[in-house]
Amino acid sequence: MADQVAPHSAEIDSPKAHKGLIPFNVALVLPAQLTVLGVVLVPTLIVIWLAMTDWQPTQAVPWYDAQPVWYWNFYDLWWDDRFINAVIRTFAVVAIAITVELALALGLALLFLDEWPWRKIAVSLIILPMMIIPVDAANAFFMLFNDRGPVNDLISMVIGEPYTFSWLSDPTWAMFPILLCEIWQWTPLMFLMVLTGLMSLPQNQVRAAVLLGATPVRIFFRIMLPLLTPVIGVALLIRAIETFKIFDPVYIMTRGQPGGATETISMYMYNGAFVYFRMGYIASAALIVLVLVISVCLALSRPLKRHS
Amino acid sequence: MAKRKHSWTTALKRGAVIVAALISFLPIFWLFSTSLKPYDEWAEWPPVWITERPTLQNYRIVFFPEEAREVAAEQEGSLDYKVSGSAWKAFQDSAIISTCATILSVVFGTLAAYSIVRFRTGGENFPFQFLTVRMMPPIAVVVPMVALFSILRLSDTYVGMILAYTAFTLPFSIWMIRSFLEEVPAELEGAAMVHGLSQFRAFLTVTLPLVKGGILATALFIFILNWSEFLFALVLTSGNVITVTLQVANYVSASSGKLYGVQAAMGTISTLPVIFFGYIIQKHLVRGLTFGAVKR
Amino acid sequence: MTDAAKTNQHRRRFLKGTAAGLAGFAMAPGLMGRAMAQSPAIENIHNVAAAKAKELAGDKTVSLTIMQPSGSLGNVKPVGDAFQEATGIEIKYLEVPLGEINQKVLLEAVSKSGSFDIALPATFGIPDLAESGILVNLDNYALTYEPEGFQDGSLYNIGDYYKGSFYGYQTDGDTYVMFYNKPWLDDETEQKGFADKHGYPLKVPDTWEQLDQMMAWFHRPDDNMYGGALYRTQFFIAWEWWGRFHAKGHYPLSDDLEPQINNEAGVQALEELIAATAHLYPGAKTNGLFENFEAYGEGNKFANIGWGGTQKYLNSDKSDMKGKTAYGLMPGGMQGDTLLRTPYFNWGWNYVVSSVSPEPEIAYLFTLYACSPVMSTIAVRDPGGYFDPFREVHYSDPEIEQTYTPEFLATHKVSMRNSIPDLYLKGQGEYFDELRVNLAAADSGTKTAKEALDDTARSWERITRRMGKRSQEVQWRFLKSIYPADVRDKLS
To answer: Which residues of A touch B120 (CB under 8 A)?
Structure first.
């Protein structure tokens, strides 16, 4: 896969001394770098300041004049069950979603190894979900799992009596449609990644194993899966990062209701900052999340780096 | 015997594919099917799978609320939906913001990617700092962005939205375009420069044409991301600027609740360009969503 | 006149308005349909306001932008069009999602972008918005332009005021009203059976105790009959408890802001609410507003609670309850021999003026125009919009009567006049959500009633400390002083 690219020779193009103040190569990255600094680094600095205040717009002071409370927000967060639960819930969602996505993707990809007449069209159909706007997908799932929606209709047909369970209002089950929506939408991506990986496996080893009389199951687990590990690693990492941010389906389907039973980190922070207007407090939560995400990413970016 | 067993497993495999395709399709089918339903069938029990009285009224409400009102006035028991303005404004705003942000992101991204590929600018770790942008949850930066935008007077403006979208798609454009540029041998430019072209001219005349397909794919990919974005639009606008994803939330009525059919019509229309562009760049989608790490 | 004197005068005028409201409560239901006589000055105020706005605008090109919650364009636009016609001032509309409007108004306090002149936030958010500085204190404008007795015609205006100042006109009659299954109430066998068992006649209940007994009486799931369709979802549960608690004669907070919700009455109210859950239909725990009235429209449930929107649905062709509904005020409680009624106003939209607006005076004149008897009647007529009747004159408008039925309107009007307010304090969202979460936990059995209310009280103390106790005390004293006078005397 990535190794097939043409080698590029770095030697010939060390940047020449430039007439201007800024070297040519630095000038090229400048627009991108400045945009990122402006919209990411500056807000991060503001977050650090806000995290040490209890600023609320209802105090009628500008945010830069807010009264500092230093570390007290962090102390409160530690005892805030809603926050802790949201963190735990988010990690659970990530774990469940990416595991299920991977299992489904592997299973699906195995169905597409050989050539067959409608293969291309079938791939196109299966990857359709990832092309849908997430908000619209969430709306579709909202309707599917409505108490009078088609899912309940299908269940009614199976059990033979009317079934009108209100999935999204039940504290135990409300997370289920949200998870399904996420899995439905992103399994196709995982599938494409795994399929790409499978198709570019060296065929010799597989063929040799077949000749030696290995069973398909053994071939899959002993030869294909180990060779796929790097691809799966990248796929899981990228999906984990994206799933960690999960917001759109939660907002559309439940807004964290009932009783905060579906509150993920993003939803918790939205509710805190834009429903209760506790901007300073939520900035502290944001700071924690930023530190968490960046350190996890630094630790995990090695496989990605090795891969590219 | 072996052959029969083979055809049996094949049938099973094809059957599994059909089931998967059906599941992939069901929510989209429901969205589209609901968009054609008359008002009294939106939340009927048992639900109506395919309406026998298809109507374009939901689409009319989305685009021509005034005409829809006239049509409704003639129909007994029809929905009174004097509830929302036309969605044209949302499509227009989304188009402006997405297009501008895409162009900025791709131009900035191409320049930066070129610098990274050819000059190893900033060393090996430099490209990774852009990735952190994509790794942090947008909600964590949204609170300070509200504060920052308030002093810069960027809240609820095109410029503000374009800036935000540009920054948050840059990691994709840099990494994706980088992966295309890496496939072009540097020697080609070297040869051009021997003929007296400057480095930048060589890039423009030799390298760029070779990767223009890839850059176009990147642009479409980023357009899709921008068009589908929701959280920034939700927090950083307050009515002056409105995107297609936000407009969906505007279809409610006091006596009828969520206007399912209208929301579905809006959802169907707004998601069509995304599906269209998505299939155009189908073979680059994986590369895009994995920051160029997984190629075909 | 000094500003302080002006404010004082305005407040006196306003308090008189509340006192006048009491008369409505004592009136017999038969008299309700008749509109009170209004002075010609009030009748004509929309013309005066428009003329004044036109004069103030002069030769300038002035335009006003109204930020409104999605779904209310049908209420706002006809009035805006008429104003534009009358004054030449252009009216523009900004639409934001229904649940996001208070947030958008508040964020304007941070960004000061001037994107709107007038907004329609939910009433319970006025304290937060007033504290943030985004709302114009309208005392002086009201003193200058409001005709004598104007606010008397508005049946519920407690939410228009914060810490003694006026911030905007209420424009939606969101009081909680009860719905009962009339054929069941009128059934002679049921009447006899019920009277024999409980020793009093089966009729629209006066107290929560009676309601609970009637729901228990009619609850026969095996015969597909259910006692009630009251809400048990987290979002709604606190409103019913609020009514049950007040009916026992207590304020939620003491004068120095100590929570009283966890006193004996509070716990008892919650235990009764939980006991009543057993006599509700199965969807009660999960169904929101729309599912609720659709379920009640099936006709196999005895009691329901709701707003004007509920009645709009029940009175439509989609509902089997059309013409079969009896109406009642939210039940009360007995204090010795006297009945304490505490109807409850729990949503509402107020027209407010942005402090960033370059033309606050013209913007105020628009709000006066929009809430004038003539114009507000046009606004309320829209059957797809949110606005329910809120001024005297609406109750005799033929179109409005057709949408709601005269019987419903009679009850609605009495309810409006005597409604207790939400907890209009800074941080209302936090106070109430804390209550909601804990009440839902108690209802589902994860906490006892006492634990749930104790936990809420502890959180309330924390919220109060964070919001600033002094400042909250000022508003709480003021709010108590404008509870409906009849109720005020009976609460402690």
So the answer is: 10
pLDDT at C23 over 50: no
Residue B154: predicted pLDDT: 92
Chains that touch C (3 or more CB pairs under 8 A): A, B
Return the bridge partners of C175, or none: C345
CA distance C289 to C310: 8
Closest CB to A57 among C109, C287, C430: C109
CA nearest to B77 within chain C? C317
Count residue pairs from A and C with Cβ separation < 8 A.
65
**pLDDT at residue A182 is higher than 90:** yes
Query: What pLDDT, on the 0 to 100 scale, is given for residue A20?
Result: 64
Q: How many Å apart are CA C89 and CA C63, to the nearest integer?
A: 5
Residues of C engaging A, defined by a Cβ cutoff of 8 Å: 99-100, 103, 106-107, 109-110, 128-129, 131-133, 233-235, 283, 285-288, 291, 426-427, 429-430, 433, 437, 440-441, 444, 466
Rg (CA), chain A: 25
- Measured between alpha carbons, how far is B87 from B60 in angstroms, rounded to an integer? 10
Q: pLDDT for C117-131, tens place per residue? A: 999 999 999 999 999
How far is C437 from C237, CA to CA, in rounded Å? 9
Q: Which residue has the tokens 């579906």?
A: A262
Q: Which residues contact C143 (CB under 8 A, 6 or more apart)?
A: C6, C9, C10
d(CA A61, nearest CA chain C) in Å: 8
Cβ neighbours around B116 below 10 Å, total: 26
Among C106, C286, C437, beta carbon nearest to A260: C437
- Which tokens hold the place of C327? 């109406």
How high is the ipTM of this complex? 0.91
The SS3 of residue B257 is: strand
Q: Compute the distance between CA of residue C410 and CA of residue C407 in angstroms, rounded to an integer.
A: 5
Sheet with C90-96, side-by-side order of all strands: C90-96, C63-69, C118-119, C350-353, C169-170
Residue with the larger pLDDT of the pair C209 and C233: C209
pLDDT in tens, C479-492: 999 999 889 989 98
Positions in chain B whose pLDDT score sits under 70:
1-6, 76-84, 253-257, 295-296
C335: helix, strand or coil: strand
Question: Cα distance from C146 to chain B (closest Cα, Å)?
Answer: 30
Nearest-CA distance B45 → chain C (Å): 11
Query: For residue A203, what pLDDT is reported?
Result: 76
